[in-house]
Structure formats: structure tokens, C-alpha cells
Write a structure and sequence with these properties.
A hairpin with a 2-residue loop joins β7 and β8. The longest helix is centred in the middle third of the chain and has 18 residues, at 118-135. By secondary structure, this protein is an alpha/beta fold. It is 31% helix and 27% strand.
Amino acid sequence: MLHAVIMAGGFGTRFWPASRRARPKQLLALATDTPLLRSTFERLAPLVPAERIWVVTAAATADATRRMLPELPDGNILAEPASRNTAACAGLAAHAVLRGDPEAVCAVLPADHIIGEEARFRSALAAGADFVARDGGLLTFGIQPTRPETGYGYLELGPEHTREGEWRVFELQAFVEKPDADRAGAFLSSGKHLWNSGIFAWRARELLDEMRRQIPDLAAGLDRLGEALDSPRAGAVLAEVYPSLPATSVDFGIMEGARHRFTIPVDIPWSDVGSWSAVAERLPTDAAGNATQGRVLAENAGGNVLVSSGPVLAIRGVEGLVVVATPDAVLVMPKEDAQRVKEVVEALQDRGWDDVL
């Protein structure tokens, strides 16, 4: 049976001041009418019943997650006592699903993406799940690039392996870090590169076997957690073990060294909504290229990203800025630096201004 694991443990620091520790990115409606986490759940619901949808989130946001997804059984929300990146998150979920389904196949995906053509996305997800259920291996879904994007990592295709219905399954040759503009243009022209979506499918047992082979210290900690999950000691073991687990990503820690790895190219509208500039692509834009949300006034100004969830925001005579206003904080920075909001958050933390974090 197919299980869906939604990774919702991040804090979305690149979306400060809208995103906070108690209200991270996935709980926000960024350029949409529905919070990202809720949209992810609703996207999966026609394919996977609620009792087989799992959410891994931070302990601080577990209650908010339950309120947003009341359809989920309480035990399907797994609360991380510390953030240990995506490999630990995926491994914890694998142990959880295996308790009731020893042959479980997992589709694993972030909570904070915007995806169009959702029926087609579900078709690709089902095809990938069917493939790994039958043939094994670890599979990721790559997005057909539409522009020479420098903000995404890429996947390099190997030979075509098989077909799963209408979908082509390729061997995965390599993961490629975010390129510069020239390389991104070459990737777009090559036809051999996809955007790395961070969406996966695998048999839960096979993921854990790869962890034991490649990251034995992480696997040992997760195995200890797995043994305790159904016991009265589960909470205490999680609090003791999880913060000490190695922090590594699925891509770097597992997929890059996996013995059998595959990818399915998917041609759908997709965004990981990774910065305020990315949000701007989905907001209404005026004749001067200002992307706006909320009560905003722009005069003699162009190419700005202007978002307010509180006060009236008025600008004049400026270009290329990100300005985000909430009732208690305002961010102003060049749009070209939109990926660097995390540095602002770190500086606020250094000053001890936790009330706005």
C-alpha cells in the first residue's frame, strides 16, 4: 500500500517576517488562498487515504499541524524534538509506517511546494510508487525545466530504464548543485537535466537498508527509535536520541550513494516557493512590474515585491526591492538578495530579539 509522508519540519526563515517559529512557511498561504501544508494534503487525498498520510513536523508546530489537518489520525503526526534535516525525517517516517505495513511504499514530499496540474502529478506519483514496489530502488521525481534557473539543484539523466504506463523511468546519473547562469542555460539546452524537486518514492525497508549501509550512525539511532515507537518509552527515547542524530539530507546522505536510483521526468507547473522573489511570480503585478499583496501603494516605482499583512505599505521612487510588512516587523532588501533573508533572521537572533522570531 502507498503511504504519503509530508516533510513539514522547516521554519521557513527565508520568509521572515511572515514566517515565524510558531507559524512557519508551510502554515502560511503564500500567494495562494490555502496554507501550503493544507494544499499538499488536499493534493494527495484523492490518491492516498488520510490514515496513510503522515506528517513529520517540529514539536513546536505539531498542535498547529493537527488543527490544520483534522482528518489525520493523531499518531500520523510525528513531532521532531530537533531539526535534523531530511534523512532523519524520512527515516523516522519509514519506521512509523512499517509498524503497521511491513511492505509499505512511501511517497515523500515537502509540505511547501506549489504544484499545478494536480491530477497529472498524482499520476506520476502513482507510477513511481508502482515502479519501486515492483522493481525496488530509490526514485526521485524531476521537473522538466522551463528556463535556465540558477536557484534550483538539477538531476542528470542516465539511460532510460523502463516505462511505467505513460511515464518514462530513467537511471539517475548525478545530482548537480545550483549552477551559474551559463551552466543553467547549458542544462536547459541539453535535454538531459531536470530540476530537483525533492520528491521521492521508495519501499520503506529499502530506504532504511540504504541508511544502514551508508549512514550507519544515523541508522542505529533511528533503529533504536523504531524499536521504541509502540512502547510507553517512545517519547523519552525520541527526546533523547533524535537531537543527537547526524543532520544530513536525503540527497547527499542517501541518494547520491544509492545502489539503485532512478528518476521520472514530470512536466507540470512547479515551484518550491523558495524566496519572496519566487512568491512574486504568483502575485498580481501592476504595469510597472510591482508584485503586490495586501494594502499596498506604489508610485513611480517598478519591479518591487510588496507584501503587507498589516499596515498600509506605500513606496515611491524605488526599484528592485522586497518590502514585507507585518504588524510587528518590516523587511526591506534588494530583490536580488531575496535568498539571504536567513542572514537577517540570524542577526536578529544574535541580538536576542526572539519576540519577532
